[in-house]
Structures are given as structure tokens and as C-alpha cells.
Design brief:
It is a single chain. The protein has ten helices and 13 strands. It is α/β, with parallel strands linked by helices. The strands form four sheets. The chain has a seven-stranded parallel β-sheet, with helices on both faces. Strands 7-10 form a two-stranded parallel sheet. A two-stranded parallel sheet has the order 8-13. It is globular. Bound molecules: uridine-5'-diphosphate-4-deoxy-4-fluoro-alpha-D-galactose. Uridine-5'-diphosphate-4-deoxy-4-fluoro-alpha-D-galactose binds next to helix 6 and strand 8.
């Protein structure tokens, strides 16, 4: 298929583009390169374009006979979204609506959307199922949940078919070592732990050691980025035959605490990794673990990287070879 990937130069996007190219799809990537890296896009056509640029988008759609869109371009920092909600509603919703408008204009009616565990807020049940209530606790999560609801309305009114993928904690790097995770600023646990292992940071702060969990630190569900990327390929291929739209969780079904992540990283890297207790980070739920049974049953998705040590080892390979990022 000829597939447009928005946000294809980002961490998730670059891995999705690589998987699409390896499964013989044609890829057109757009990214405004505010957070993304041009070097991370390993093939296909590339456009430096913002989704707010309606005319620019129209030109790209008129130049390529696009069959489906994988929409990943978004702002995605929970803390920043609390401080600057306008940015999140503007970029994730208004610009996202621009994309939908151009898609409908060109009769492109297949979309894979990158959603998030943040749509669940503080979950009632663990593991979390897709049917559990969506009650996000911050503007980032709300922007993603609203967009899912917009997609449901567009499905009913305009027959737009979509698959929304609710990611838990994406982690690791492509095993080739060519692409990896490089955010600025970095806020995610595993890259921060590995930057500490490299000596680029003096110590890691553990945000909260008094949670009601097995060791007092937060528990998260880490899913390897290549497994996550493969789910996008399955989803876009499923849309070819699909009559229905779907929402799927994407996680491992296993939870690891912050302390367990640090301990595993010490083992993988052979480095000390100083870590000190710190205040809780506002808005962090104690435990987030996904049930991913639905995507396994319906799309035949499975994990290939199924332990934390391997996930961290792939991330370490990237960080060791690219200590300053891209
Ligand atoms: N943490 C630390 N120290 C750090 C950084 C993180 O202790 O320096 C902890 C966090 O408090 C959290 C865990 O490590 O308990 C994981 O934190 P991340 O920032 O790596 O990931 P989150 O679970 O906060 O974020 C993920 C996704 C978001 C999504 C969110 C939903 O990356 O996109 O889950 O809550 F919105």
C-alpha cells in the first residue's frame, strides 16, 4: 500500500516507517522536525510539513495516490500539557482535524491513530481493557481521547475506517542500532537511566518511593518499539478488508517497577547508575498494565521482544553508539 506517515521522524514514527519499508509498503513521511530527526527516516519520500499547513498537505495528497494514513504527529508530554493545554488542543486536535479534512477531500478513508494509556487516567482495573472507562487526568490524555471520539463520528458520518492504538510505555530501539529514542528534553525513564549509565547525568531521581506497590515505586508496562511498530503494519493491512473500526491496547501485559528497571539496566550495562528517591511526579498513576488480548486475538499480533532485559539491551546499543543522540 501507499501509506502516509505523519510524525514519521519521531521515535515511534521512525520505527513504523522502517517496518513498513521492510514489509514492502511505499511510504511518504511528513514531519515538522520540531521534535523529530530527519536522519531517523530510513527511506521513502520525506516532506518537512506541519499538519497546520492545509495547502501543504493538499499538495502532498495531490502528488501521491495515498491509500492510508498512519497518524502519529502530536505533542505528547503530560506535564507540558497541564502547563500549556492550548498547545495540545491546537496541535493534537485542530491540526489533526486539518488532516482529516484533506483525507476526506481526497477520499482517503483508512487511518491508524496513535493513542495512549493516558486516556484511562487512574485505572479502576489492572490489567486495563479497552472497554474500561476513559477518564484522562490531563490535557494530553484528553486530546487523544477526544480525537478517538472524533474518529468514531467520522466513521459513522463519512465511512472513515480507523484503528486506534493505545500505547503503554514504548521502549527499546530497533535491533539494527540505526534508530533509537532521542527526545529533547528527555523525560522518559529508560533513556534517562541509560544517560546516567553513560555518565551524561550524575544521578537518576526516582519519582516517588511510597506508592502502594511491591517496592514503593510506580509500575509500568514496557513494550518494545519494534513490536509496537509491527502492530501499525498489521493495523493498516487489516483496514484494507475491514468493515469495522477498532481500538486496541498495546502493551506487554507485564509490569515492572522503576527500581526493577534501574536494576535491570545495571545488569545490562555493567554500570553503577546512581539513583536517589525524589518527590512523586504529579499525575503519575501507581500502576499501568495493559491487557493486549484483543489485538492478539483479532489481528494476530504477538510480542517478539518479551523480556525487559532484551528491551533495555536494544536501547543500550543505541545509546552507547549515539551518546549525544542523532
Ligand atoms: N520516572 C522516574 N524518574 C525519571 C523519569 C521517570 O522515576 O526521571 C518514573 C515515572 O514517575 C513513571 C515511570 O518512571 O513512574 C515511567 O515514566 P515515563 O515518563 O518513562 O513514562 P510514563 O509512564 O509517565 O508515560 C507514559 C507515556 C506517555 C503517556 C503516559 C500515560 O510515555 O505518553 O504513559 O500515563 F501519556
Amino acid at each position: 500500500m501507499r501509506i502516509l506517515v505523519t510524525g514519521g521522524a519521531g521515535y515511534v514514527g521512525s520505527h513504523v516507517v522502517k517496518e513498513l519499508l521492510e514489509t514492502d509498503h511505499q511510504v511518504i513521511t511528513i514531519d515538522n522536525l520540531q521534535k523529530g530527526h530527519r536522519e531517523a527516516v530510513l527511506g521513502g519520500e520525506f516532506y518537512d510539513c506541519d499538519l497546520a499547513d492545509y495547502q501543504g498537505l493538499k499538495q502532498i495528497f495531490s502528488r501521491h495516490d495515498i491509500e492510508a494514513v498512519i497518524h502519529l504527529a502530536a505533542d505528547s508530554l503530560v506535564g507540558e500539557s497541564v502547563e500549556d493545554p492550548h498547545k495540545y488542543y491546537q496541535n493534537n486536535l485542530t491540526s489533526g482535524l486539518n488532516l482529516l479534512e484533506v483525507m476526506l477531500e481526497f477520499s482517503v478513508k483508512k487511518l491508524v491513530f496513535s493513542s495512549t494509556a493516558a486516556v484511562y487516567g487512574d485505572p479502576q482495573n489492572i490489567p486495563i481493557k479497552e472497554s474500561d472507562p476513559g477518564e484522562p487526568t490531563n490535557p494530553y490524555g484528553r486530546s487523544k481521547l477526544f480525537y478517538e471520539k472524533i474518529l468514531a463520528d467520522y466513521h459513522r458520518a463519512y465511512e472513515l475506517k480507523y484503528v486506534s492504538l493505545r500505547y503503554f510505555n514504548a521502549a527499546g530501539a530497533d535491533s539494527s542500532g540505526q534508530i533509537g529514542e532521542d527526545h529533547d528534553p528527555e523525560t522518559h525513564l529508560i533513556p534517562l537511566v541509560l544517560q546516567t549509565a553513560l555518565g551524561r547525568r550524575q544521578k537518576l531521581e526516582i519519582y516517588g518511593t511510597d506508592y502502594e506497590t511491591r517496592d514503593g515505586t510506580c509500575i509500568r508496562d514496557y513494550i518494545h518499539i519494534t513490536d509496537l511498530a509491527r502492530a501499525h503494519v498489521l493495523a493498516v493491512e487489516a483496514l484494507k478488508q475491514a468493515k469495522e473500526s477498532r481500538i486496541y491496547n498495546l502493551g506487554s501485559g507485564e509490569g515492572y517497577s522503576v527500581r526493577e528497571v534501574i536494576e535491570t539496566a545495571r545488569k545490562v550495562t555493567g554500570r553503577e547508575i546512581p539513583a536517589v528517591p525524589a518527590e512523586r511526579r504529579a499525575g503519575d498513576p501507581p500502576v499501568l498494565i495493559a491487557s493486549s488480548e484483543k489485538i492478539m486475538d483479532e489481528l494476530g499480533w504477538e510480542r517478539r521482544f518479551d523480556d525487559l532485559e532484551t528491551i533495555i539491551a536494544t536501547a543500550w546499543k543505541w545509546h552507547e553508539n549515539n551518546p549525544g543522540g542523532y
